[in-house]
Design goal:
Strand content: 5-15%
Distance between the termini: 8 Å
Number of domains: 1
Order of helices and strands: EHEHHHEHEHEEHHEH
Largest sheet: 5 strands, parallel
Helix content: 40-55%
CATH superfamily: P-loop containing nucleotide triphosphate hydrolases
CATH architecture: 3-Layer(aba) Sandwich
CATH topology: Rossmann fold
Number of helices: 9
Strand order of the largest sheet: 2-3-1-4-7
Number of strands: 7
Radius of gyration: 17 Å
Shape: globular
Structural class: alpha/beta
Bound molecules: BIS(adenosine)-5'-pentaphosphate
C-alpha cells in the first residue's frame, strides 16, 4: 500500500501525511524533511542543497532522487505496510525513477492524492506556519496554534518559522511548482491513479475526504 501526496507548497501535505500514515501504520517519507535533516546535520549533501531550498528552487534530481529511493527500498524491504510519499516525486524524471524502483522490488503505487488550494490561501498558510525544529510538529499561528505560545505541544521546544516561508520565497516556490511539478498531475491521471481533494476545508474534514478516497483505491485491496 504505497501512496503519493501531491499538491502545491502549503496545501497541507505534511499535516495530512502524518495523520494518514499514523492511522494506517505507513512510513511517512517527506523529501523536504530528509533534506532539512541533512542540512541540520551539516553533511556535504546538506551544504549542497541549502542554496536551492533557501531560494525556493527545486534541488537537482541527482541530489534528491537517490536519497529518497534508497529510503523507499529500505523501508519496503523491512516488512512495512507501505510508504506515504510527501514532496516526492516533484519532477517527471523523479516520477519515472520511482516507477523503476518500485517495479524492481515488485511494489506499486495504489493512489496519488492531489491536494488543491488557491495561491492566496497558500501564502496565508505558509507565512503563518511555525514548526518544531526538534520533533517536526507543525503549527499555524491562527489555524493551529500551539497551546503555549511559541512552544511545541509535543516536546516543549521553541517553534520557528522555516527560512523558505518568507512571502517572496513562497511565491517563487509556487512558480516552480507550476513549471516543474504540476505536470505530474497528468502523469498520474493517465496512470489512473490521480484523486483530487480540495484542501480549503478544516484539517479534520480534509483527512476524512482523503480517507474516503483511499478506501476505494488502496485500503480495500
Ligand atoms: P517541502 O518541505 O516538501 O515543502 P513543500 O512541498 O513546499 O510543502 P510544505 O512543507 O511547505 O507544505 P505542506 O503541503 O506540507 O503543508 P503543511 O502541512 O506544512 O520542500 C521544501 C524544499 O525542499 C523545496 O522547495 C525544495 O527546495 C526541496 N525539495 C523537497 N523535496 C524535493 C524534491 N522531491 N525534489 C527537489 N527538491 C525538493 O501546512 C502548511 C501550513 O498550513 C501549516 O501551518 C499547517 O498547520 C496549515 N494547515 C494545513 N492544513 C490546513 C487546513 N486544512 N486548514 C488550515 N490550515 C492548515
Amino acid at each position: 500500500m504505497n501512496i503519493i501526496l501531491l499538491g502545491p507548497p502549503g496545501a497541507g501535505k505534511g499535516t495530512q501525511a502524518k495523520r494518514i500514515a499514523g492511522a494506517h501504520s505507513l512510513v511517512h517519507l517527506s523529501s523536504g524533511d530528509l533534506l532539512r535533516a541533512e542540512r541540520a546535520a551539516g553533511t556535504e549533501l546538506g551544504r549542497k542543497v541549502s542554496k536551492f531550498m533557501d531560494a525556493g528552487k527545486l534541488v537537482p534530481d541527482e541530489l534528491v532522487t537517490q536519497v529518497v529511493l534508497n529510503r523507499v527500498r529500505q523501508e519496503l524491504s523491512s516488512d512495512e505496510n507501505g510508504v506515504l510519499l510527501d514532496g516526492f516525486p516533484r519532477t517527471l524524471s523523479q516520477a519515472k525513477d520511482l516507477d523503476v524502483t518500485l517495479t524492481d522490488i515488485e511494489e506499486q503505487i495504489c493512489g496519488a492524492i492531489n491536494l488543491t488550494l488557491d495561491d492566496e490561501q497558500i501564502v496565508r498558510r505558509l507565512t503563518g506556519r511555525r514548526s518544531c525544529p526538534k520533533c517536526g510538529a507543525v503549527y499555524h499561528v491562527k489555524a493551529k496554534p500551539p497551546k503555549r505560545a511559541g512552544r511545541c505541544d509535543v516536546c516543549g521546544s521553541e517553534v520557528v518559522q522555516r527560512s523558505d516561508d518568507a512571502e517572496e520565497v513562497v511565491r517563487e516556490r509556487l512558480e516552480v511548482y507550476r513549471r516543474q511539478t504540476q505536470p505530474l498531475e497528468e502523469y498520474y491521471r493517465q496512470a489512473g491513479l490521480l484523486q483530487e481533494v480540495d484542501s480549503d476545508m478544516e484539517i479534520d474534514t480534509v483527512t476524512g475526504e482523503i480517507e474516503e478516497l483511499l478506501r476505494s483505491c488502496c485500503f480495500e485491496k
